[in-house]
Amino acid sequence: MLWFRSTAVQLSRYSPYLLGRQLCAASTNIPVLTLFTKKPCPLCDEAKEVLEPYKNRLILQEVDITLPDNVALYDKYKYDIPVFHLNGQFLMKHRVDIQKFENQLAKLELQNDDC
């Protein structure tokens, strides 16, 4: 019961639209870009603006490292946000390296086309 409650609380933090996109992504292999953030984070806001043109090519999942469930993430990233993982793999931190991001996204899209 505790696991279910914890999961339900975590799921309730997301909008139904985002959950639907995540479920869809699981079946269509849309890349997931995870942004580890906290409030306030001007660099995170800047990064989201830079990534706005890519919103139709990926799912942007934000993880607030200051939440009680994310103590390990806070300890790991408290001085480095924003931190980005693409499909669960570290990609970049501090600022968006657009060339690196585009290269990795293109690789994933090519792999997904082969499926």
Automatic annotation (TrEMBL):
Coiled coil: none annotated. This is Glutaredoxin-like protein. The lineage of its organism: Eukaryota, Metazoa, Chordata, Craniata, Vertebrata. The keyword Transport applies. InterPro entries: Glutaredoxin-like (IPR008554), Glutaredoxin-like_YDR286C (IPR052565), Thioredoxin-like_sf (IPR036249). Belongs to the glutaredoxin family. Keywords: Electron transport, Transport.
